[in-house]
Specification:
mainly alpha; two-stranded antiparallel sheet; 5 helices
């Protein structure tokens, strides 16, 4: 099974751009004390991330027949979002406190660990990434 695919890379690039833009917009809205702007940018960002994850994940599954229940995309999203969060904090875009970012990283990391456990269970049900039903029909 290929872990790094073209579609995962395309997703990572789109997620990187969206996350940087979101962090910038979030910083501007928080500086302006705009609750509506903060809420709107968060909802738009979440929706766009879902859509690009769904789009590239679906294409990746169809092209590469990978049965990983979205774990690779979840891991890439975690690394990008947490990494960019800490990066922009140190650049001075203090939209969140360091404590809040750390709590988010730990909480999300727990969710990622649970997803990894389900990923391992799913891998035991497949043979080299292919569903057993697809091989033994």
């Amino acid at each position: 099974m290929k872990a790094l695919t073209i579609r995962l890379g395309q997703f990572a690039i789109c997620a990187l751009v969206l996350t940087v833009l979101f962090r910038y917009a979030l910083n501007l809205c928080i500086d302006a004390n705009s609750i509506i702007g903060t809420t709107t940018s968060s909802i738009v960002y979440g929706g766009l991330m879902f859509l690009i994850g769904w789009y590239f994940g679906k294409k990746d599954t169809n092209e590469n027949e990978i049965h990983d229940i979205g774990f690779r995309f979840h891991l890439v999203t975690y690394i990008l979002c947490i990494g960019i969060g800490y990066g922009v904090y140190h650049l001075g875009w203090n939209a969140e406190s360091l404590r809040a970012m750390t709590i988010t990283a730990i909480s999300w990391g727990i969710g990622l660990t649970i997803h990894f456990i389900f990923y391992l269970i799913e891998q035991k049900r497949t043979i080299k990434g292919y569903a057993r039903e697809d091989i033994f029909q």
